[in-house]
Amino acid sequence: MESTSADGGGFLSRMALNDNKAGMEGLDRERINKIIIESSKGSRFYENEAKKELQVNQRIEKMTLQRAQITEQQLQKAHTQVEKMVNELDMSRDLSRLIVHVDMDAFYAAVEMRDCPELKDKPMAVGSMSMLSTSNYHARKFGVRAAMPGFIAKKLCPNLVIVPCNFDKYRAVSNEIRKIFAAYDPNFMPMSLDEAYLDFTDHLEQRISWPESLRTHCLHTDITETACEGELQSKVPQESEPCVENLSPLLFEDSPSSTPSLPPSGEKVESGGGSEVFGTCVEEAVREMRFRIEQKTTLTASAGIAPNTMIAKVCSDKNKPNGQYRVPSNRGAVMDFIQTLPVRKVSGIGKVSEKMLSSLGITTCAHLGQQMALLSLMFSETAWHHFMMISLGLGSTHMERDGERKSMSTERTFREMSVVEEQLSLCRELCEDLAADMKKEGLRGKTITLKLKNVKFEVKSRACTLPCAVATTDEIFAAAKDLLKTEIENVSPQRLQLRLMGVRISTFVSADDKKPQQKSIVGFLQQGSSGPSHGIVPNSVKETASHPPMERPPPAGSHVLEQLPQKVPKLQGLPWAAGQTGAQVSVAGENQPQSFFQKAYAKKLSLQVKSLSETDKGRGSVCSGFTQPGTDNPKSRGAAIEMHESAQGLLGPSGNSSITRVEPVRVAPPEASGSTSGAAAPDPETLTCPVCFGEVRTTDLHVFNRHIDLCLSGVATETPTDTDSESDGDGGPKGFTVIDEGVPEKGADRERQKRSNPEDALSAFKTCDALRGPSVTRAEDTGDPGAKERRSGDEPLLDHHGSRRVHSPQRASSSHRGDPASQSSRLEAPPGHEGSTLICPVCQVPQNSHDLTVFNHHVDLCLNQEVLHMLAPPSSSSSSALRPPVTAKRGQELHTARPNKGKSKRRGPPASPPAKKAKGRGSQNTIDKFFM
DNA sequence: GCGGATCAC
DNA sequence: TATGGTGATCCGC
User: Fold this and answer.
1) Is residue A647's beta carbon less than 7 angstroms from any atom in nucleic acid strand C?
2) In whole angstroms, how large is the CA radius of gyration of chain A?
3) CATH says A70-95+332-391 is which class?
4) Among A327, A554, A814, A896, which residue's Cβ finds the most Cβ atoms within 10 Å?
């Protein structure tokens, strides 16, 4: 591989065959690349690629020059610091989870082959002459792969059969597969129609005591299924019947390990005839899952088993197709595995990053580890932290899904279009499509972005942010049209020669701007109380789609809470490893989909509500005013299984703000919390606290919000007053403040902004004093700080799509980064953290390291081990005090009880790390107290 | 907030 | 003949 990236050859390395895919080993790259290049040479596409390659090469040149200026002393210093961080990360390594990455083999192609056996022995691909979505293994042997235009594939393989895509079919199959995934991890995280991450830890804990009957599964041919819960019932029904029938497993002859009934690993027991008994270990459980998938769909899947998502992902590719691979949960195994692993195999490191690293002599993860000092001086903090995680074989150990979507778009490629009228007409069509999608999800956004690609393949985007959120065709078009006209005018006499146009809308408004879609606090609690699915929170808007943009008045006489924080403040991490590292501890609670913290929080509230409702059924005011239908949004519906269909464009979430805020509407307050007290007569001058349900005598929302903060922090039940220092400086209400829906800024100074921004998420959930402290002030957020709303339960990142990804270090040459000295100093004392000690918000133990990556990692562990078990049944959770997490100790003691992760769906990327939350170390506000 | 780049699927 | 669509993050401005 290096050869290609190293390039130097005369052709564009970026256009060379990307054989970083299963089934493409040992190909005649030279011949293939020659065909690819010759098929493209002279085209506008090629010219543009050449231009982009040149830009990358220039970046590399700059980097090379920069590298030459680094002194030995700087390197030494960096080395010392990196070492320290590495040690800390290494010590906090969490090997307690068993993460599985499942990936269907050549999915679309396999489905087509299944439904049309004639294709079975032929090289085929799914897509069109213009672009292929995927190819079967026969075709891969010719160098035909996804993302390659069909006409070039045909040159590589003249007999290639190209079948058009049929997403409805793939989606249907995907749903079947997901049902099986759910049996092993109800909170599995789908990454696309054919891929998902699952946490098998809990399943295995139970499985260990399962009788054989529960681990017995029938072969397809058998009609008597044993323990296959209702699954068999639908043994591959569908119309596909005809062709299918015995296409069985071996879709690919080159299958390394056609498993179905393989025996090898010790534990398996082959039961006679029609069924097979699977063992209790992970490998057996995973093999069983793949077996069930195959029995049910006639399609094969490959899987990777490892202590974290990053490794699991790589593993699933190891024995593909139809195989699985496991990296044992011990440091040695992980490090050995990493050693020779090409960096390009790691999710997040793409073509460009690979090339840049290669120019530094880094092609494997081992190299990455050896060059960390250098990398810390040449790449952005985000980038090198990611590299460091990779070099240590670290990754996310729990699945969280992304937060709600942040943008929605539609774009179309067409044959050259130069007529203005046509362009405007197309623009409108795009806006119509987009508006329709927005309506489906009940969203409204303020930023409209027009994307244009000319016939030379040059892409440009133009955006404008409106004062108010919009969603209708006319509104969107009004903005898009202006952007387009401006571009048209800019090229003046000439005409825009377009080949693609797209319209995107982002900066979704939170409940604020939205109308009353806010969901009531009760609604939130109800959802939350139901467990994992509660994520759905405020789906307020869902049906709102039909409401007019601006608002509908809240039900009279009721409090309308904007939204509860869906996410709790947590530290965010690197893009690719969300939450884990993070140079900054961002708090953006809102973005996070649904953290454990949140869940716990929701649980607590739900208990209160429950008791309340029991004692007071008649009080309509409480429920009527608060309750909200919210759950109807199909998308937010808690379904654990959610389609990811990126290809189609519909994703689900949607919500917006994260925090509920009380609006100036007064209503009859519910009674005091838990109190059996009698009743609180509706007093126009009071507001009822959603936490303690006590009445707060004020109509000032700031005061009220402050009270809520205190309640959340466990400090008070009465009207507050001022203890809260929250307002350190900022003026806005801190507690249930509304986080602005705006997208956060990604500017360079995020740290600063957040810190000083009163409205930021941090302050929003400021119930924790600790957060406020210097220690946790966040330093940046990698991502979106903005408020997101919450929707149906999710959590963070990762991703998915929302996932956070790694980004290539593009800016090695940037000014400040270029100064090694400044970099190093940053390492020691990240902005915002200088001189302060980071205190774990979960265990409250001060941490030695000032490095947020290390710190976040520690918090993750705490959350996994402590918070989680707090959510467990009362008995076990017993008070559990927060014992310090393992932080610096090895991961000994793992908890067995893994509370439900409550996320209902997830989609985030895998890399994301744990959710951390911030919270206060304030004396009294321990998490225990908070939740109890 | 904008615009260009990267990445993933 | 012919090189996609959607969503997200990063980073310098």
Assistant:
1) yes
2) 28
3) mainly alpha
4) A327
